[in-house]
Specification:
two-stranded antiparallel sheet, flat, single chain, 94 residues, mainly alpha
Length: 94
């Protein structure tokens, strides 16, 4: 089971490396290219999809549908002290 989660993590990380192009997510195109160029990758991807669908199906009642809060920290980088006040808390929160 751990190897499937590792595989899924690797898939998403590899997609993230190639996905950003002019503010357009091209993850689907990259995924198709990876599948076409590497049959082993395509097979592992399909196996992970089957595993995830089965896992979701088996654990429908296990996970509640409540709101999950993920703590996020925002770091602002600036060269001069005067630049520190250019973004309001409202802009950062949005």
């Amino acid at each position: 089971m751990k190897k499937y989660f590792l595989l899924i993590a690797v898939i998403f990380l590899s997609l993230d490396l190639f996905a950003q192009e002019e503010n357009r997510c091209s993850s689907f195109e990259v995924l198709q290219q990876l599948k076409a160029s590497n049959p082993d990758y395509a097979q592992l991807f399909e196996q992970s999809e089957i595993f995830l669908q089965q896992y979701i199906s088996d654990h429908k009642n296990y996970h509640s549908r409540s709101v999950i809060t993920i703590p996020v920290v925002v770091h602002l980088l600036y060269n001069q002290d005067s630049a520190n006040h250019k973004l309001s808390d409202r802009q950062i929160t949005s």
